[in-house]
Amino acid sequence: MDIKDALEMVSMSHPGMVRAHNEDSVACEPDLGLVVLADGMGGYNAGEVASGIAVSVVISEIKHAMEEIRPEDQDEESGGDVAVSLLRNNVQKANSSIYHAAHSQPQYSGMGTTIVSGLFYDNRVAVAHIGDSRMYRLRGDVLESITKDHSLLQEQIDSGMISKADARQSQNKNLVTRAVGIDAEVETEIHVHEVRRGDVYVLCSDGLNDMVEDNDIAEIVKTLKANLPLMASQLIQTANDNGGRDNVSVIVVKVNGDFAAQRSVIGKFLSWFKN
Amino acid sequence: MAAKIILSMDGVVLQEYALNKERMTIGRKPHNDIVIDNLAVSGEHAAIVTIQNDSFLEDLDSTNGVMVNGIATKKHFLQNTDVIEIGKYKIKYLNDQPSQTTAADFEKTMVLRAPAKPAASKPALTTTQSIPTVVTSEDALDATGKFTATGPLSGPLAKAAELTTKGAGAAPEKTAGPQRPAVVQILNGPNVGKELELVKNLTTLGKPGVQVAVLARRPHGYFLTHVEGVTFPVVNGESIGENLRQLNDHDIIELAGVKMEFYLK
Q: Does pTM top 0.90 for this prediction?
């Protein structure tokens, strides 16, 4: 099955109930199986500039690169999948663009952004993230976060200093330990996960998971998986109903079919035969 | 303003301490930050670790232990007005920091960092490393919204490469449903008379694959929306299409051939 038929994607972004600006950026490329979400930070409108640069650089560069190479191939340099190198190199490119813009234009000084991006290929998804924007996965009845925040709070949880239950009370929620565009280089965390038919992936900015508890996110995703636009708007609405203190953005991706890569002429023939 | 603790015994205040150090120890021996000269108190009895606005109490394997709000504990995430008990002594923890819910300053996104990472080096901050410490003060916030880290980054906690603060990390208020509970009662078919109490935030109605609608409980009422199927739900004889429809008491819903009444209890 073609990737754009196998996946259904919907993105939505809302400034929330308190802030005037929306500093989040989202984008989907159904033809490439690529989704990107970024939550910008910085004074005046620098936050939206940073997240905007991050999303457009990653989308346009990967789009360009995929005219020549395929994500499922092996990268000769790193030995991993090309998809992983694509994400790593282009998040780094976005990092440089933001870093340089921030250093050449005083009004953008200090701007940065989180990012979470998924590249779907060959029944897998490569997930890259920096900061505290998340990707959740619903498989069967279980919704879990498949990214781990780069935040002070997450480090406190990991070191056993604070329990997950107490974490919601913490006043340190807003500290991320990594961001795109702050330094000349950034370390992107990338993992490849196997994808199953029926999975639902939810990318979100912290405006969602700070306002809506994981149980409630799970309930919405499970209940509304037949209607992705409604799922996305329900998630945003719930964050806003709970106070909407931050911008809130979501991208939901549902896997409706198999999208194994066609490796050879015989493979193509067989798959044609199966259809 | 930093959090503080107030040491008292038998209702008499003995001393007040500002939690202005990353780690403050409490014990009988004179080298502690807070010295309590009493035989019931161990040499090094407990410590309070403060990171930004959060403080944690730790029992340092004391002989007689530590209680917080009447419960014996080894480690505790301190909340405003918690009372720590060590022997006959009481220590009240006060952190009246305006929570970020109300502090407009925190609405703006900020960047906070220590020394810049050199361009060529492979960066190192992983989640398994120890907690970075950052000393901040309100004054360090300049006009661009950029923090400068001040103060020493000491000991094993000095690995902070950078920290970026983001605005508004408010704890969500618990989703409060509308005041009155509501019910959907089935009016025809084999399940006639059955009542479905709307106890969840989302309740689905209908037959999956045929026609499904969802009833959402929100702070200001109950809302019906179409989820799947070629026909839309009907409320009081009118199709609601793809729109969100707020339900009023005694509205009649028709869905997948089943008629039901929505009413508030």
A: no
